[in-house]
Amino acid sequence: MLFKDWKIPIKKASKRIRMVGDIAQIEKSLEEKVFKVDITNRKKSQINYITGKKISISDRLRNRLNNVILNKNHAWGYLSFLIMTFIGMWLGFGLGKFLNNYGVSVILGVVGSTLPYMYLTFKIRAVDRDKDKKLLMVMGNIVATYMTRDSFPLSVEEVLPTIPEPLYRHFKLFIDEIKHFGADNLMDASLRLANAVNNYYFYEFMQLAIQSEYGESGLKYTMKSIPTDYERYLEKNEKYSRIISDCNIEFIMRILLFPIVIGFIRVISSDYYNILTNTIIGKILLFGVMIVYVVATIIFRKYNKDIKLEL
Amino acid sequence: MGKTIVLFVLLLINIYFLFKGIYNLFRLLPSVRSMRKVIGIKKIGKKDKDLYDLFTEWAEGLSKNILIKYFYKNTSAREQTELALRRTGSKDTYEMYIAKTIIYPIISLVITFVLGVFIEDITEIAILGYVVKSTGLIISFLLFFSPKTTLNKSLSKKDDRVILEMPRFIRTYRYSPNAKSFSQVVDDYLKTAKEGLLYDLTVLKADIELVGEEKALQNFSNRVSIPEVREFVTVILTSLRGKKEEADMNLYFVENKFQDRIDRMSDEEMKKRPEVLSALNNVLLLSMGVLLIGPMAIHSITGITQIFK
Questions:
Q1: Contact, B273 vs A296, CB < 8 A?
Q2: Domain-terminating residue out of B157, B189, B214
Q3: Residue B254 lies in a domain
Q4: Chain B: nearest CA to A153, how far in angstroms?
């Protein structure tokens, strides 16, 4: 009975969406009206570059969301992302209202609206970690063959069968582009490959490759040293992640403790629960603890980032 | 009738040429838009001087004409600070550096002293004047030391960047073929050098062309005062006299020494993180305790729930 009731609003929402139009059409309109970043405005970007003006906050936010939503490691689109953010916001707000506290409901609403974004970044990061480990081997192989060949694309083509899957499609596209559009396309294709793989060391690697293809053949030997740098970086961060993982598990336990403690208070005595939800002191107490949690989460995220050894 | 037609045609032709002439005149004159562009191009590089610029110019001149002429006569110290200023990429000249150490504190002292006297007169409270004067004294004392400390800090940062980039340079030299000389490797590496080694390697390249490889390398090790760099230079110097293959093993050891230094640098940051995270976890646990015990404590004080309702 309860589950039937739960499914009704979703069915209604889906019917309404069908009434508005095709989902693909909605996605397209969202892309054009809400999430569009005006990169094509050449004059504006040039003025910004010369005057050293920073990109506006809304544009930066849109850029970031686009980077996350358009990533191909998950099946979400603009519409599903927006729906999930609204659901998260609604859930957080409702939970605060259940505790009879408007301050808490505002905080939980904001936190709930950021949950889908966090989930997506977490998912993308998990795929990226796997990709980064494979990238080391690929870079080493390409350099080893490039030492004895004259052309970079030919050496990539020779290594291509040994490249594992999340990276294979990017390299295959690179080779195909050069085959079909000629060697004049080399620079654009390699920059596109570097952007698609999205790794600092690989970006440097590809820049050196472009330079060495256009005449500076002495840079081959600097290219050979980049995989070693990258290996050091990976080693360092792996060692660090092992140390930090215990603290992370503890932190998740603390977060799970929050609903357990409130349930515990409700179970032992309704008076205590009443004080927490209906008096001003209790409300301020709950609000303060909530703020401590949010600040702690921000600090936690900051101290969980990778160590940078970039030059 | 014929006369009027001829005159009319002549008039038309005249009017045509008149308009063409006017058109030509306007075409030859530069348009407002292009005039603006020319004015804009002329303005590039020129800067409108404000009050602070005039003040800095005055201070620079004062330090050049009086302070350096009569008090700061030590040339070796001057060379050292100038080298440090150039290596860190700061825009200040040596004159400006001296002005910042001497003239700026004196001016701040004078301003705060006058302000203190002024406040004392208006409020007629002696303590307030003393407070302002003493804070001015402290500020000028700090200003006296600030140029040197900032320069030292940026120098140590620069050294860190050099240490980070050095292994890549050594590896490039190790991996290049034996027929390639050291100066050729430096030439090639400079095309991709980063912020750390860019300045020092460009100076090294110029030195090699002027005074030869050995002297240039010695200058390089004097300029960059890091022990590992000195070791690297000695290895390179011995390899220049003998064969390159013989130095390969030594180069590998020097590279490892740099890597150890980098490891130590990152370990310092790494040690901090678990401590911070465990402290954070403690804070969360304690806040949970407050949430649990708070209602009980409030409940135990009878009547307080009635007041705050």
A1: no
A2: B157
A3: yes
A4: 21
Shortest Cα–Cα distance, B252 to chain A (Å): 13
How far apart (Å, rounded) are the C-alpha atoms in residues B87 and B224?
9
The secondary structure of A147-158, three-state, reads CCCCCHHHHHHH
Which of B273, B278, B295 is facing A282, going by the closest CB pair? Answer: B295
Residue B28 belongs to a domain? no
Judge whether B302 lies within some domain: no
8 Å CB contact of B308 and A261:
no
Residue B267 CB coordination number (10 Å): 14
The answer to whether the CB of A103 falls within 8 A of the CB of A287 is: yes
**What's the structural domain count of chain B?**
2
Amino acid letter, residue B163: I
**A218 contacts B176? CB cut-off 8 A:** yes
Nearest to A222 among B172, B195, B285 (CB): B172
Domain encompassing residue B243: 160-265
- Give the global pTM: 0.72
Instruction: Please check whether residue B37 lies inside any domain of the structure.
Output: no
Q: Compute CA distances B118 → B110, B124, B127, whole Å.
A: 12, 10, 13
Same domain, B110 and B134: yes
Identify the CA nearest to B148 among candidates B218, B74, B77: B77
Round to whole Å and give the CA distance between A130 and A138. Answer: 13
What count of residues does chain B have?
A: 309
Q: pLDDT 10s per residue in chain A (311 long)?
A: 445 556 666 666 666 666 556 777 777 777 777 777 665 666 777 777 777 777 778 888 888 888 888 887 788 888 889 999 999 999 999 988 888 888 899 999 999 999 999 999 989 888 888 888 899 999 999 999 998 888 888 999 999 999 998 889 899 999 999 888 877 788 888 888 888 888 889 998 998 888 888 877 778 888 888 998 899 888 888 888 888 888 889 999 999 988 899 899 889 888 888 888 888 888 898 999 999 999 999 999 888 888 777 77
Tokens 């002293």 belong to residue:
B113
User: Do both B133 and B197 map to the same domain?
Assistant: no
Pinpoint the alpha helices (H) of chain A: 2-20, 23-33, 42-51, 57-69, 78-98, 102-146, 152-159, 165-181, 186-197, 200-213, 220-223, 226-268, 270-278, 280-302
- Return the beta strands (E) in A28-97 as ranges: none
**Cα gap A46→A52, rounded to integer Å:** 10
Is there a contact between A192 and A174 (Cβ–Cβ < 8 Å)?
yes
Contact state of B180 with A299 under an 8 Å Cβ cutoff: no
